[in-house]
């Protein structure tokens, strides 16, 4: 009798355990379904706004895109649009402009941003006011920034020419945006002014995260400000500097608004970069296939640079 009761009790326990495990599985499944329902709109939005355009642009880069009877016409040409890049006589100069613009703009942004971050971090006189104002250039839209610099560079009523004339640095107004010798420097300065605040904000956050105990210990060991900067500050914030460099490089490679408003790539292609050239080919000359191939060239260059940065950062860490 006792053996029969024990068997029945064990059977009930097994059934209860099974029902509990099934309930847990059902709860997990319902949680997964609920999460999927909540995530579906976001995933659909990403699919429609990011994934689909990427795939569609690649398809267009393999075709000669034209218009017939108001409809888009595709003619498959394979890699001809990519091969056209190597035979385009304007490409070497445009790639050179892109490299110069990117390197000078990124380095200039990093140097000035680092100086601003140190200025605010050490609380130099006036830093409290500067801390509240220095984000304004970054908060403004690119077009507004470009229009502001266009007025400042004006040869007739621009404030830059006015100040330089008053200081007797120049004898006559300079046409900053229409002369080949000054146009590239003018748009680089405008881009640095726009990009610096965000980079400075990240570097400032990194500086403020350095433990004070490290400074105190270094003072006990007799380390001066330069040794503290070299041995404590720089190694600690180096990962953040790499992140700033990666983001600034990516953003600089895709700059369009400032150049389009200020120079439109001129004069004589002296400020023409790949991003603006891809736009011109696609929407001014309606060679959408070639413009898509140029856009993919920019994407590949950006990916290569990003992977290089990440590998260097990984080795440093």
UniProtKB/TrEMBL annotation:
Membrane topology: Multi-pass membrane protein
Segments crossing the lipid bilayer: 35-59, 99-121, 133-152, 183-207, 240-262, 288-310
Record keywords, A-Z: Cell membrane, Membrane, Transmembrane, Transmembrane helix, Transport
Family annotation (Pfam families): BPD_transp_1
Domain ABC transmembrane type-1: 95-309
SUPFAM superfamilies recorded: MetI-like (SSF161098)
Keyword Lyase set for record: no
Main localization of the protein described in the UniProt heading: membrane
Subcellular location per the Swiss-Prot or TrEMBL entry: Cell membrane
Family, similarity comment: Belongs to the binding-protein-dependent transport system permease family.
Protein's UniProt name: Sugar ABC transporter permease
Organism of origin: Niallia hominis
């Amino acid at each position: 009798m006792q053996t029969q009761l024990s068997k029945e009790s064990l059977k009930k326990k097994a059934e209860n355990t099974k029902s509990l495990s099934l309930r847990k599985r059902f709860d997990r499944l319902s949680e997964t379904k609920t999460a999927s329902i909540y995530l579906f709109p976001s995933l659909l939005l990403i699919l429609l706004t990011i994934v689909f355009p990427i795939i569609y642009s690649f398809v267009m880069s393999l075709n000669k895109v034209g218009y017939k009877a108001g409809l888009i016409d595709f003619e498959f040409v394979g890699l001809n649009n990519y091969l056209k890049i190597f035979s385009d006589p304007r490409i070497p100069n445009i790639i050179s402009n892109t490299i110069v613009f990117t390197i000078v703009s990124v380095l200039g942004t990093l140097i000035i941003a680092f100086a601003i971050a140190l200025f605010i971090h050490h609380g130099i006189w006036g830093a409290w006011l500067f801390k509240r104002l220095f984000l304004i250039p970054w908060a403004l839209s690119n077009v507004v920034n470009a229009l502001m610099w266009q007025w400042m560079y004006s040869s007739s009523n621009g404030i830059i020419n006015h100040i330089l004339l008053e200081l007797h640095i120049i004898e006559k107004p300079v046409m900053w945006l229409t002369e080949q010798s000054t146009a590239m420097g003018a748009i680089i300065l405008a881009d640095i002014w726009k990009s610096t605040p965000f980079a400075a904000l990240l570097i400032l956050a990194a500086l403020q995260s350095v433990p004070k105990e490290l400074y105190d210990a270094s003072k006990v060991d007799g380390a001066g400000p330069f040794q503290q900067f070299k041995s404590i500050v720089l190694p600690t914030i180096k990962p953040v500097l790499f992140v700033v460099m990666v983001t600034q490089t990516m953003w600089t490679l895709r700059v369009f608004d400032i150049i389009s408003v200020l120079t439109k790539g001129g004069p004589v292609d002296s400020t023409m970069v790949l991003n603006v050239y891809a736009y011109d080919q696609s929407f001014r000359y309606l060679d959408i296939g070639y413009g898509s191939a140029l856009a993919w060239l920019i994407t590949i260059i950006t990916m290569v640079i990003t992977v290089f940065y990440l590998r260097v950062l990984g080795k440093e860490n």
